[in-house]
Protein backbone atom coordinates (compact mmCIF):
# COMPACT_ATOMS: atom_id res chain seq x y z
CA UNK A 1 0.00 0.00 0.00
CA UNK A 2 1.28 3.45 -0.94
CA UNK A 3 -1.05 6.27 0.01
CA UNK A 4 -1.39 9.17 -2.42
CA UNK A 5 1.18 11.80 -1.51
CA UNK A 6 0.85 15.47 -0.59
CA UNK A 7 0.34 17.62 -3.70
CA UNK A 8 -1.89 15.04 -5.42
CA UNK A 9 -5.46 15.97 -6.35
CA UNK A 10 -7.77 13.99 -4.07
CA UNK A 11 -9.74 11.46 -6.14
CA UNK A 12 -13.43 12.35 -6.27
CA UNK A 13 -15.90 9.99 -4.62
CA UNK A 14 -19.54 9.70 -3.64
CA UNK A 15 -20.31 7.11 -0.98
CA UNK A 16 -23.36 6.17 1.09
CA UNK A 17 -23.34 7.55 4.65
CA UNK A 18 -26.74 6.12 5.62
CA UNK A 19 -29.19 3.78 3.88
CA UNK A 20 -30.68 6.75 2.01
CA UNK A 21 -27.97 9.44 1.93
CA UNK A 22 -24.67 9.88 0.17
CA UNK A 23 -21.70 12.15 0.77
CA UNK A 24 -19.52 13.47 -2.06
CA UNK A 25 -16.05 14.87 -1.53
CA UNK A 26 -16.85 17.83 -3.78
CA UNK A 27 -19.49 19.03 -1.31
CA UNK A 28 -16.60 20.17 0.89
CA UNK A 29 -14.91 22.51 -1.59
CA UNK A 30 -13.77 25.59 0.28
CA UNK A 31 -13.39 23.57 3.47
CA UNK A 32 -10.66 21.22 4.63
CA UNK A 33 -11.40 17.53 4.87
CA UNK A 34 -9.84 14.87 7.06
CA UNK A 35 -10.27 11.44 5.49
CA UNK A 36 -9.73 8.62 7.96
CA UNK A 37 -9.68 5.18 6.37
CA UNK A 38 -9.98 2.43 8.99
CA UNK A 39 -10.05 -1.36 8.78
CA UNK A 40 -13.34 -2.25 10.46
CA UNK A 41 -16.28 -1.13 12.56
CA UNK A 42 -16.50 -2.40 16.16
CA UNK A 43 -12.93 -2.31 17.41
CA UNK A 44 -12.61 -1.99 21.24
CA UNK A 45 -13.68 1.39 22.64
CA UNK A 46 -10.86 2.51 24.90
CA UNK A 47 -8.28 2.18 22.17
CA UNK A 48 -10.63 3.31 19.41
CA UNK A 49 -9.17 5.75 16.94
CA UNK A 50 -12.56 7.12 15.93
CA UNK A 51 -13.60 7.69 19.56
CA UNK A 52 -10.59 9.96 19.89
CA UNK A 53 -11.45 11.89 16.72
CA UNK A 54 -15.03 12.17 17.94
CA UNK A 55 -13.69 14.19 20.89
CA UNK A 56 -11.83 16.52 18.53
CA UNK A 57 -14.62 17.68 16.22
CA UNK A 58 -14.63 21.18 17.74
CA UNK A 59 -10.87 21.34 17.33
CA UNK A 60 -11.15 20.26 13.68
CA UNK A 61 -13.91 22.83 13.15
CA UNK A 62 -11.52 25.57 14.31
CA UNK A 63 -9.46 24.64 11.27
CA UNK A 64 -12.57 24.59 9.07
CA UNK A 65 -12.09 20.86 8.69
CA UNK A 66 -14.72 18.15 8.33
CA UNK A 67 -13.90 14.59 9.36
CA UNK A 68 -15.06 11.77 7.07
CA UNK A 69 -14.32 8.19 8.13
CA UNK A 70 -14.33 5.39 5.57
CA UNK A 71 -14.32 1.62 5.85
CA UNK A 72 -15.61 -1.24 3.69
CA UNK A 73 -18.39 -1.98 6.21
CA UNK A 74 -21.96 -1.45 5.06
CA UNK A 75 -24.32 1.37 6.01
CA UNK A 76 -26.29 -0.63 8.59
CA UNK A 77 -23.15 -1.56 10.49
CA UNK A 78 -22.03 2.08 10.32
CA UNK A 79 -25.42 3.26 11.57
CA UNK A 80 -25.34 0.93 14.57
CA UNK A 81 -21.76 1.86 15.39
CA UNK A 82 -22.40 5.59 15.15
CA UNK A 83 -25.42 5.28 17.41
CA UNK A 84 -23.71 3.15 20.04
CA UNK A 85 -20.50 5.19 20.15
CA UNK A 86 -22.23 8.57 19.73
CA UNK A 87 -20.13 9.51 16.70
CA UNK A 88 -20.99 12.94 15.33
CA UNK A 89 -19.37 12.66 11.91
CA UNK A 90 -20.18 10.65 8.76
CA UNK A 91 -19.07 7.04 8.41
CA UNK A 92 -18.87 6.29 4.70
CA UNK A 93 -19.43 2.83 3.28
CA UNK A 94 -16.80 1.88 0.69
CA UNK A 95 -18.85 -1.26 0.23
CA UNK A 96 -19.80 -1.62 -3.43
CA UNK A 97 -17.65 -1.91 -5.45
CA UNK A 98 -15.80 -2.99 -2.34
CA UNK A 99 -12.84 -0.83 -1.43
CA UNK A 100 -12.96 1.21 -4.64
CA UNK A 101 -12.25 4.52 -2.90
CA UNK A 102 -9.57 2.99 -0.68
CA UNK A 103 -7.91 1.67 -3.85
CA UNK A 104 -8.08 5.10 -5.48
CA UNK A 105 -6.23 6.55 -2.48
CA UNK A 106 -3.69 3.72 -2.49
CA UNK A 107 -4.69 2.30 0.87
CA UNK A 108 -6.66 -0.89 0.11
CA UNK A 109 -5.35 -4.06 1.73
CA UNK A 110 -6.36 -6.54 -0.96
CA UNK A 111 -5.07 -9.56 0.97
CA UNK A 112 -7.47 -8.95 3.88
CA UNK A 113 -10.18 -7.13 1.96
CA UNK A 114 -10.13 -4.06 4.19
CA UNK A 115 -8.98 -0.45 4.10
CA UNK A 116 -5.64 0.33 5.68
CA UNK A 117 -5.41 2.68 8.65
CA UNK A 118 -4.66 5.77 6.58
CA UNK A 119 -5.15 9.49 7.08
CA UNK A 120 -5.41 12.30 4.53
CA UNK A 121 -5.79 16.02 5.03
CA UNK A 122 -7.33 17.61 1.92
CA UNK A 123 -7.50 21.36 1.47
CA UNK A 124 -10.36 23.51 0.22
CA UNK A 125 -9.14 23.17 -3.38
CA UNK A 126 -9.36 19.39 -3.20
CA UNK A 127 -5.60 18.83 -3.00
CA UNK A 128 -4.06 16.33 -0.56
CA UNK A 129 -1.81 18.28 1.81
CA UNK A 130 -0.75 15.44 4.09
CA UNK A 131 -1.10 11.67 4.13
CA UNK A 132 -0.05 8.96 6.51
CA UNK A 133 -0.38 5.18 6.56
CA UNK A 134 -0.23 3.64 10.01
CA UNK A 135 0.76 0.01 10.59
CA UNK A 136 -2.55 -1.91 10.71
CA UNK A 137 -2.44 -2.63 14.45
CA UNK A 138 -1.25 0.82 15.49
CA UNK A 139 -3.75 3.54 16.26
CA UNK A 140 -2.07 6.68 14.88
CA UNK A 141 -3.74 9.12 17.28
CA UNK A 142 -4.45 12.66 16.11
CA UNK A 143 -1.18 14.55 16.48
CA UNK A 144 -0.37 14.23 12.77
CA UNK A 145 -3.78 15.55 11.76
CA UNK A 146 -3.59 18.56 14.08
CA UNK A 147 -0.06 19.37 12.88
CA UNK A 148 -1.12 19.08 9.23
CA UNK A 149 -4.14 21.34 9.75
CA UNK A 150 -1.95 23.91 11.47
CA UNK A 151 0.50 23.81 8.57
CA UNK A 152 -2.16 24.65 5.97
CA UNK A 153 -1.55 28.10 4.46
CA UNK A 154 -3.39 30.88 6.23
CA UNK A 155 -5.20 31.81 3.01
CA UNK A 156 -6.94 28.52 3.25
CA UNK A 157 -8.31 29.45 6.67
CA UNK A 158 -9.24 32.86 5.25
CA UNK A 159 -11.31 31.19 2.58
CA UNK A 160 -13.43 29.64 5.27
CA UNK A 161 -14.47 33.08 6.42
CA UNK A 162 -15.55 33.81 2.84
CA UNK A 163 -17.29 30.46 2.48
CA UNK A 164 -20.80 31.88 1.88
CA UNK A 165 -19.44 33.80 -1.13
CA UNK A 166 -17.82 30.66 -2.48
CA UNK A 167 -21.09 28.79 -2.14
CA UNK A 168 -22.89 31.56 -4.02
CA UNK A 169 -20.43 31.29 -6.90
CA UNK A 170 -20.94 27.55 -7.14
CA UNK A 171 -24.68 28.01 -7.12
CA UNK B 1 7.72 -1.02 22.76
CA UNK B 2 8.36 2.70 23.04
CA UNK B 3 7.24 4.70 20.02
CA UNK B 4 9.84 7.29 19.21
CA UNK B 5 7.48 9.11 16.85
CA UNK B 6 5.02 9.73 19.70
CA UNK B 7 6.90 11.97 22.10
CA UNK B 8 5.44 13.84 25.05
CA UNK B 9 4.69 17.33 23.72
CA UNK B 10 4.22 18.94 27.13
CA UNK B 11 7.08 18.49 29.64
CA UNK B 12 6.24 17.60 33.21
CA UNK B 13 5.91 20.82 35.19
CA UNK B 14 4.54 22.37 38.36
CA UNK B 15 1.08 22.29 36.72
CA UNK B 16 1.09 18.50 36.91
CA UNK B 17 -0.06 16.06 39.54
CA UNK B 18 3.10 14.22 40.50
CA UNK B 19 3.87 11.37 42.87
CA UNK B 20 7.40 10.34 43.73
CA UNK B 21 10.89 11.62 43.55
CA UNK B 22 11.68 14.55 41.23
CA UNK B 23 15.09 12.98 40.62
CA UNK B 24 13.76 9.52 39.81
CA UNK B 25 15.41 7.87 36.81
CA UNK B 26 12.03 7.04 35.24
CA UNK B 27 9.03 9.28 34.80
CA UNK B 28 5.80 7.49 33.94
CA UNK B 29 3.08 9.81 32.63
CA UNK B 30 -0.43 8.42 32.37
CA UNK B 31 -3.11 10.03 30.23
CA UNK B 32 -6.23 8.63 31.85
CA UNK B 33 -10.01 8.80 31.92
CA UNK B 34 -11.73 8.12 35.25
CA UNK B 35 -14.66 6.34 33.58
CA UNK B 36 -12.48 4.16 31.36
CA UNK B 37 -12.60 0.50 32.46
CA UNK B 38 -9.10 -0.17 31.10
CA UNK B 39 -7.75 2.71 33.20
CA UNK B 40 -9.43 1.26 36.29
CA UNK B 41 -7.77 -2.08 35.53
CA UNK B 42 -4.40 -0.34 35.16
CA UNK B 43 -4.81 1.58 38.43
CA UNK B 44 -3.73 -1.17 40.89
CA UNK B 45 -0.96 -2.20 38.50
CA UNK B 46 0.46 1.33 38.52
CA UNK B 47 0.35 1.19 42.33
CA UNK B 48 2.36 -2.06 42.18
CA UNK B 49 4.92 -0.43 39.91
CA UNK B 50 5.23 2.52 42.27
CA UNK B 51 5.77 0.09 45.15
CA UNK B 52 8.28 -2.02 43.22
CA UNK B 53 10.39 0.82 41.82
CA UNK B 54 9.88 3.23 44.74
CA UNK B 55 12.36 6.12 44.57
CA UNK B 56 13.34 5.28 41.01
CA UNK B 57 9.88 6.05 39.66
CA UNK B 58 8.03 9.33 39.37
CA UNK B 59 4.35 9.06 38.37
CA UNK B 60 2.34 11.82 36.70
CA UNK B 61 -1.38 11.73 35.95
CA UNK B 62 -2.96 13.84 33.21
CA UNK B 63 -6.59 13.96 32.14
CA UNK B 64 -7.74 12.43 28.88
CA UNK B 65 -11.52 12.15 29.22
CA UNK B 66 -13.25 10.59 26.21
CA UNK B 67 -16.49 12.34 27.01
CA UNK B 68 -18.59 10.99 24.15
CA UNK B 69 -17.75 7.38 25.01
CA UNK B 70 -17.83 8.02 28.76
CA UNK B 71 -20.49 10.61 29.66
CA UNK B 72 -19.24 11.17 33.25
CA UNK B 73 -15.52 11.25 32.45
CA UNK B 74 -15.33 15.02 32.10
CA UNK B 75 -17.29 15.59 35.30
CA UNK B 76 -15.04 13.17 37.17
CA UNK B 77 -11.91 14.87 35.83
CA UNK B 78 -13.22 18.25 36.96
CA UNK B 79 -14.09 16.82 40.37
CA UNK B 80 -10.51 15.58 40.74
CA UNK B 81 -9.22 19.04 39.78
CA UNK B 82 -11.56 20.68 42.29
CA UNK B 83 -10.33 18.24 44.94
CA UNK B 84 -6.78 19.23 43.97
CA UNK B 85 -7.54 22.80 45.04
CA UNK B 86 -8.05 21.33 48.54
CA UNK B 87 -4.85 19.29 48.23
CA UNK B 88 -6.90 16.12 47.64
CA UNK B 89 -6.11 15.24 44.03
CA UNK B 90 -4.54 11.86 44.70
CA UNK B 91 -7.13 10.70 47.23
CA UNK B 92 -9.83 11.60 44.68
CA UNK B 93 -7.92 9.94 41.84
CA UNK B 94 -7.69 6.77 43.93
CA UNK B 95 -11.31 6.92 45.04
CA UNK B 96 -12.57 7.36 41.46
CA UNK B 97 -10.70 4.30 40.24
CA UNK B 98 -11.33 2.12 43.30
CA UNK B 99 -15.07 2.82 43.16
CA UNK B 100 -15.56 3.16 39.42
CA UNK B 101 -18.30 0.53 39.08
CA UNK B 102 -20.33 2.10 41.89
CA UNK B 103 -20.19 5.75 40.91
CA UNK B 104 -20.50 5.22 37.16
CA UNK B 105 -23.80 3.41 37.80
CA UNK B 106 -25.30 6.54 39.35
CA UNK B 107 -23.41 9.30 37.52
CA UNK B 108 -23.44 12.72 39.18
CA UNK B 109 -24.93 11.33 42.41
CA UNK B 110 -22.15 8.75 42.48
CA UNK B 111 -19.55 11.49 42.15
CA UNK B 112 -21.10 13.37 45.07
CA UNK B 113 -20.50 10.26 47.14
CA UNK B 114 -16.82 10.63 46.31
CA UNK B 115 -16.76 14.20 47.55
CA UNK B 116 -18.43 13.07 50.79
CA UNK B 117 -16.05 10.14 51.19
CA UNK B 118 -13.14 12.57 51.11
CA UNK B 119 -14.87 14.96 53.49
CA UNK B 120 -14.90 17.82 50.97
CA UNK B 121 -17.21 20.72 51.71
CA UNK B 122 -20.05 20.53 49.19
CA UNK B 123 -20.55 24.29 48.89
CA UNK B 124 -16.88 25.12 48.52
CA UNK B 125 -16.56 22.31 45.97
CA UNK B 126 -19.52 23.61 43.94
CA UNK B 127 -17.95 27.09 43.88
CA UNK B 128 -14.59 25.67 42.78
CA UNK B 129 -16.23 23.66 40.02
CA UNK B 130 -17.70 26.87 38.59
CA UNK B 131 -14.21 28.30 38.17
CA UNK B 132 -13.35 28.05 34.45
CA UNK B 133 -9.73 27.21 35.36
CA UNK B 134 -10.88 23.75 36.39
CA UNK B 135 -12.30 22.80 32.99
CA UNK B 136 -9.44 24.51 31.19
CA UNK B 137 -6.87 22.44 33.11
CA UNK B 138 -8.63 19.30 31.93
CA UNK B 139 -8.78 20.59 28.36
CA UNK B 140 -5.12 21.59 28.43
CA UNK B 141 -4.17 18.10 29.56
CA UNK B 142 -6.35 16.59 26.84
CA UNK B 143 -4.97 18.70 23.98
CA UNK B 144 -1.40 18.19 25.21
CA UNK B 145 -2.13 14.47 25.03
CA UNK B 146 -3.52 14.77 21.51
CA UNK B 147 -0.36 16.56 20.41
CA UNK B 148 1.73 13.90 22.09
CA UNK B 149 0.01 11.20 20.04
CA UNK B 150 -2.18 9.69 22.77
CA UNK B 151 -4.33 7.21 20.87
CA UNK B 152 -6.46 5.73 23.63
CA UNK B 153 -6.71 5.37 27.37
CA UNK B 154 -4.75 4.69 29.42
CA UNK B 155 -1.86 6.24 27.46
CA UNK B 156 1.50 5.72 29.17
CA UNK B 157 4.70 7.63 28.43
CA UNK B 158 8.01 6.29 29.69
CA UNK B 159 10.58 9.07 29.92
CA UNK B 160 8.69 10.98 27.27
CA UNK B 161 7.80 8.26 24.75
CA UNK B 162 4.48 6.54 24.25
CA UNK B 163 4.49 2.93 25.39
CA UNK B 164 2.55 0.55 23.17
CA UNK B 165 1.83 -2.90 24.52
CA UNK B 166 0.50 -4.82 27.48
CA UNK B 167 1.07 -4.09 31.14
CA UNK B 168 3.79 -6.71 31.73
CA UNK B 169 5.71 -5.12 28.91
CA UNK B 170 5.35 -1.72 30.57
CA UNK B 171 6.79 -3.06 33.83
CA UNK B 172 9.72 -4.55 31.91
CA UNK B 173 10.28 -1.32 29.99
CA UNK B 174 10.49 0.61 33.28
CA UNK B 175 12.81 -2.02 34.76
CA UNK B 176 15.13 -1.85 31.76
CA UNK B 177 15.39 1.94 31.90
CA UNK B 178 16.16 1.81 35.63
CA UNK B 179 18.76 -0.95 35.18
CA UNK B 180 20.47 1.00 32.38
CA UNK B 181 20.71 4.21 34.35
CA UNK B 182 22.02 2.80 37.61
Description:
The complex is a heterodimer of chains A (171) and B (182). By secondary structure, chain A is of the alpha/beta class. Chain A is built from seven helices and nine strands; from the N terminus they run E-E-E-H-H-E-H-E-H-E-E-E-E-H-H-H. In chain A, strands 5-4-3-8-9 form a five-stranded mixed β-sheet. In chain A, helix 3 (75-85) links the parallel strand 4 (65-71) and strand 5. The longest helix of chain A is centred in the middle third of the chain and has 11 residues, at 75-85. Chain A is globular, with a radius of gyration of 15 Å. Chain A starts with 13 loop residues before the first strand and ends with a helix. The model of chain A is unreliable at 163-171 (pLDDT under 50). With 182 residues, chain B is an alpha+beta fold. Helix content of chain B is 54%, strand content 16%. Chain B is built from eight helices and six strands, in the order E-E-E-H-E-H-H-H-H-H-H-E-E-H. Chain B has helices at 37-53, 73-85, 89-98, 100-106, 108-117, 122-130, 132-148, 167-181, and strands spanning 2-7, 17-19, 26-32, 57-63, 155-158, 161-163. In chain B, helix 1 (37-53) links the parallel strand 3 (26-32) and strand 4 (57-63). The longest helix of chain B has 17 residues, at 37-53. Chain B starts with a strand and ends with a helix. The model of chain B has no long low-confidence stretch (mean pLDDT 95). The chains are: A alpha/beta (171), B alpha+beta (182).
Amino acid sequence: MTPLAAGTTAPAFTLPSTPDQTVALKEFRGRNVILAFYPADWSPVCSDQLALYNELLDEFARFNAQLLAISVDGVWSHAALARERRYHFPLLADFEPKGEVARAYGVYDAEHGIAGRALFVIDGEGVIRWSYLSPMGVNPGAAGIVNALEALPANNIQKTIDAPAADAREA
Amino acid sequence: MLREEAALAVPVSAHDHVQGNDHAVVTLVEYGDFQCPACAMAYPLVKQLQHRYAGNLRFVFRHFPLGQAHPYAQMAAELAEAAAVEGQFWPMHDWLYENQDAWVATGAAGLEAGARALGLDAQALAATLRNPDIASHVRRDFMGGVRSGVNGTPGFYVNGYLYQGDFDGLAHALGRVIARQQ
